[in-house]
Amino acid sequence: MAPRIGVVVFPGTNCEHDARVALESLGASAELVWHGSSDLSEFDAVVLPGGFAHGDYLRPGAIARFSPVIGAVEAFAAAGGPVVGICNGFQVLCEAGLLPGALQKNRGLRFLCQNVTLEVANDTSVLTRGVAVGTRLVIPINHFEGNYTCDAETLQRLQEEDRIVVRYAENPNGSVDSIAGVSNEAGNVVGLMPHPERATDVLLGSTDGITLLEAFIASAATKV
After folding, report:
1. Catalytic one among 16, 95, 145, 197?
2. Is 150 a catalytic residue?
3. pLDDT tens by residue, 6-58
4. Taking CA atoms, which of 185, 195, 197, 211 is between 20 and 30 Å from 137?
5. Which domain holds residue 157?
6. Of the candidates 163, 188, 4, which has an alpha carbon nearest to the alpha carbon of residue 80?
7. Is 54 part of the annotated catalytic residue set?
8. What's the total number of domains in the chain?
9. Torsion, CA 77, CA 100, CA 163, CA 187, rounded to 10
């Protein structure tokens, strides 16, 4: 049975269909979930996609974190459910306290829309389980506030606890330690700025996103 994956939609989200189509092309059952929902127990995994949740007023994700669905995401994650936040979804997870750190404006104050090379730094998270550390993947980014930052103590903890999931091979935005994605302590909640759902077809320039999405679907399948 195909795992059921809920793709959360906030007002202003614009990558929900990209995520749904990509997941379904790889054999999952993906369904859009409105941000007013308060129960995600019917799903085997959850994705918070990219976009501009609530217009990114205040800070990206700062308003979205008060949506009813965030309580459901917190409960789902606490029960061990796989959760991935992509781009704006990563920002929401940080604002909600489900992931440490924050995303600030890119170095040079430039919007970035380009392919980047990522290096897998962790092979145990729900997004990279079974993917060899050091694997290089070409994945697009599309953000203005993707510069990951955290204090020195948090960075040391992320490094020591092996919670840095992917790094940029060449840092495009100024992120501390070239971090492109991190996980929670359990490894079941991951946030990353690059868009793996936009790298699943050779016509899009890369199919390397399949590596990450297949690992995520496999993680979801363990709950089926």
Report:
1. 197
2. no
3. 999 999 999 999 999 999 999 999 999 999 999 999 999 999 999 999 988 88
4. 185
5. 4-221
6. 188
7. no
8. 1
9. 0
